[in-house]
Amino acid sequence: MDIDVRGPRFGAAVTSVVLAVTLITGSVWLLAWQTFAFALGAAGGVTRSPYGWVFRKAVRPRLGPPAEFEPPEPPRFAQAVGLAFAAVGLIGWTVGPAWLGSAATACALGAAFLNAAFGYCLGCEMYLVVRRVTVRAK
After folding, report:
1. Tens digit of each residue's pLDDT (9 = 90 or more) over 24-46
2. What whole-number distance in Å separates Cα of residue 113 and Cα of residue 72?
């Protein structure tokens, strides 16, 4: 079943704030929270992530009906990509080197911001490329 495109954008906006505050404060705990949120989104889809739940329960009822839908697989793949970057960030900030943690977190922030501000999902685009390549390879 397709999902409301506004949900992943809302999640990306919250993620952008969380990752920006993480970079400003250097909070490993905040990055751990975001890693957990990415893991839930990658495992169960964006509707099962904490930000998806907030969107579904608190935000979407206050909006008009969705005008656009998208398949859930690309945003779910994007959550897995975010999880990978956040996990590398956690490793960098906990065992070193710290620059790796900052760089990986900044990359995740950049991708989340692109989705939140412009509706351009890098992970979703990666999903489409991977699908295209794997279909041709068969």
Report:
1. 999 999 999 999 999 999 999 99
2. 19
